[in-house]
Amino acid sequence: MKSESPGRLTRFLAQVCGVCPVCTHARKKQNGMAYTFVKSIEGRLCPFCRAYEKVHGRKAHEAHR
Disulfide check for 26: which of 3, 31, 61, 63 has CB 3.0–4.6 Å away? Predict the structure, then answer.
C-alpha cells in the first residue's frame, strides 16, 4: 500500500489548524471547553482539523510530543 504525501491544499489547511486559537488552546491545555469542543467536532465538521490529522498523523486536540 503506497502512502501518498498530502497535497498543497491539505498542507495549507493543516497550517490554518496549527494557528487556530481554539485548536492551539486545546493542544496546549488538554482540558476545558476548547479541548472538549475540538475533540468532539474535529473529525466530523472541521476541514482544518481533518487536514491537520492527515498531515501530522495525530488529532488536532492531541498534545505535541
Answer: 61
